[in-house]
Structure prediction request, 261 residues.
Amino acid sequence: MKKDKIQKKGFRRGIYILPNLFTSFNILCGFYAIIASIDGEYVAAATAIIIAAVFDLLDGKIARITNTSSRFGVEYDSLADVISFGLAPGLMFYLWALKPLGRIGWLAAFLFMACGALRLARFNTYTGTISSEYFIGLPIPAAGGMVATTVLFCHKFGISGGANPVVILIMLYTLAFLMVSTFKYSSFKKNPKLSKKMNFNVLVTVILILIFIAAQPPVALFLLGLVYIVSGPITTIKYHKLIKQKEAEPHKTERHDTKPV
Prediction:
């Protein structure tokens, strides 16, 4: 009896309010995005998904800063991500552009959500066993955010509702593949803290990016998302080339040493 009380007490202590509250806001935004998509309000749905990404970023940061990370929080965050960045973007893309394709359209939306869930399951399995400097595969918030910014980008240029279904289908399959791929994406966890000194040019660049985002949010977020998505394959290719060069250097040295005088 005492053992059960101790276990229940430990379970209660393992649930921290602040980070999980932000995770709950993440789910709320994802659920609203689903409702807005069903009602045909795709701009509102896309905006809700982006706000959900902000909450997803904050809950992890707050958990690390306040030292309130827990296994419960990790699992709760994963379930929230499946809703906000898997189900909501997939459904939104289907209703927005893929519905004319029928079964092919909703299967693509399902594949996107399924690959996102697999990506999260793999991430939770490998937590603590691989470097935290990078992610293996495209993170699902980035994939869902790319879907949302695409809708906003098209609406900005007056092609909302008239996007080519085939192009959207290819994009959705590509994002699904990148999530379950082994491409390395930066986690930005190795970046210097804001309290530390930084190069003046870096500060100017950050300010210019923020001004660009404030001036043209749909265009800026779409381009930033596109750059991040492309960075994975490029980083992985460079990484493999660097390994091959390091493996080839000892052989060159040995050949140079054994050269007759």
